[in-house]
């Protein structure tokens, strides 16, 4: 897997009430590429955040069909990943973002 692919797999952290509750249980939630595998997600999180990953769970979401003034449209399909870390592990998102900008 290439360096560029590692940094492209994790698109954004998911910020919601449910993901905040999961974060208290040492679980991170990310929006990831639709074609990313669990092994690729695990490798990306370990590389970017320098943490050990215990498990990865993924969910596929189908885009909703919405009505607009010009007819019907469809939102994009997307994938979400729950990444479980060992108990007591904390992640600093700001330092990880700075490190990924420097490596690109």
Task: Flag low-confidence runs.
Answer: none
CATH T-level topology? Alpha-Beta Plaits
Write the element-wise H/E pattern from the N-terminal end onward. Answer: HEHEHEEEEH
Mean pLDDT: 90
Structural class given helices, strands, pairing?
A: alpha+beta
Rounded radius of gyration (Å):
15 Å
> What fraction of residues sit in β-strands?
25-35%
Write down the oligomeric state.
single chain
Number of strands: 6
- Could you tell me how far the N terminus lies from the C terminus, measured between alpha carbons in angstroms? 16 Å
Strand order of the largest sheet: 1-2-6-3
CATH architecture: 2-Layer Sandwich
Number of helices: 4
**CATH superfamily, called what?**
RRM (RNA recognition motif) domain
Give the overall silhouette.
Answer: globular
Helix coverage percent: 25-40%
Number of domains: 1
Main pleated sheet: 4 strands, antiparallel
Level-1 CATH class name: Alpha Beta
Tell me what you see in this structure:
The chain has 104 residues and is α+β, with helices and mostly antiparallel strands. It has one domain (3-87): Alpha-Beta Plaits, CATH 3.30.70.330. 36% of the residues lie in helices and 31% in strands. The protein contains four helices and six strands; from the N terminus they run αβαβαββββα. The protein has helices at 3-9, 17-23, 38-49, 93-103; strands spanning 10-13, 27-32, 55-61, 65-68, 71-74, 78-84. A four-stranded antiparallel β-sheet has the order 1-2-6-3, with helices on both faces. Strands 4-5 form a two-stranded antiparallel sheet. Strand 4 (65-68) and strand 5 form a beta hairpin. The longest helix is centred in the middle third of the chain and has 12 residues, at 38-49. The mean pLDDT is 90.
């Amino acid at each position: 897997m290439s360096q560029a692919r590692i940094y492209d797999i994790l698109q954004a952290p998911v910020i919601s009430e449910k993901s905040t509750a999961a974060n208290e249980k040492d679980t991170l939630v990310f929006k990831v590429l639709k074609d990313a595998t669990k092994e690729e997600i695990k490798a990306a999180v370990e590389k970017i955040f320098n943490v050990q990953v215990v498990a990865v769970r993924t969910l596929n979401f189908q885009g909703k069909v919405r009505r607009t003034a010009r007819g019907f449209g469809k939102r994009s399909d997307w994938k979400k990943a729950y990444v479980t870390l060992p108990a007591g592990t904390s992640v600093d998102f700001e330092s990880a973002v700075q490190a990924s900008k420097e490596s690109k």
